[in-house]
Amino acid sequence: KVVGGPLAHESVGFECEDCDDAAWAPATVPGNWQLHGFTAPQYTNIRYPVFWPPRVQPLSGGSTGPLNGLFRGLLGGLLGGGSSWAGGLSDDAAGNPTGLYRRYFRVPPAWRAAGLGRNQRRAVLVLKGASSCAEVWVNGVWVGCSKDSFLDAEFDVTDALLPPHSGPDAGPGGRGGGGEEPGQLLAIKVPQWGDGSYLEDQDQWWLSGLHRSVELHCLPARAFLYDLAVGAAIEWTHLASFKSSGAGPLGGGGE
Questions:
Q1: Could you give the maximum distance between any two Cα atoms of the chain, in Å?
Q2: What per-residue confidence (pLDDT) applies to 112?
Q3: Tell me, what's the pLDDT at 60?
Q4: Contact 186, 6 (CB under 8 A)
């Protein structure tokens, strides 16, 4: 469902079990909602497609300048953990359409048998691409946010997963019973614009939504790479050797 803004009243509680989504239209993922009948594609050249100057919310009654908005967006993601997050920008009913996604999934029983949730395996949700930013809940539990449209965003959702039901009661929404794996509710909010949009702006078509796949992985609890950085240094002796070898511009002769 696409609503007027990230803080629109239709988005309040959409991540909860009792949200009535019966009238919502099916969403294509991966996909851009402009290509499926929700709002229109937008192309920009030299002007920002989003409001300028940024309409930001102050942290606590202070300045409302762009930097304050960036800090507010960051702190809101880290500390807010709830429905007040708006990608660092003030909510705008007409200027920041926001996609609301809901889906139930089940954890494969083999994952439980391999030690998921028993400090042996962990469940990691991966958003391969969400434009412009995303906020994620699992079973009503806020698990994080991401502000880069074209990089993977990973969330450890192990602690937010419901355990297998041990009794006959299927629970709310017919989530399963008698030892069956319950349905796990995934909810994702994707505003069209966030404070990161000012950094990502270039000559392009602006298309929104979960434009790459959404994946769930079962990984070892203690064996993974984290915050890997790769750097490169210039070997000036090699550069000098290259210059003296007679190399020149394409289409021209060497020295």
A1: 84
A2: 92
A3: 35
A4: no
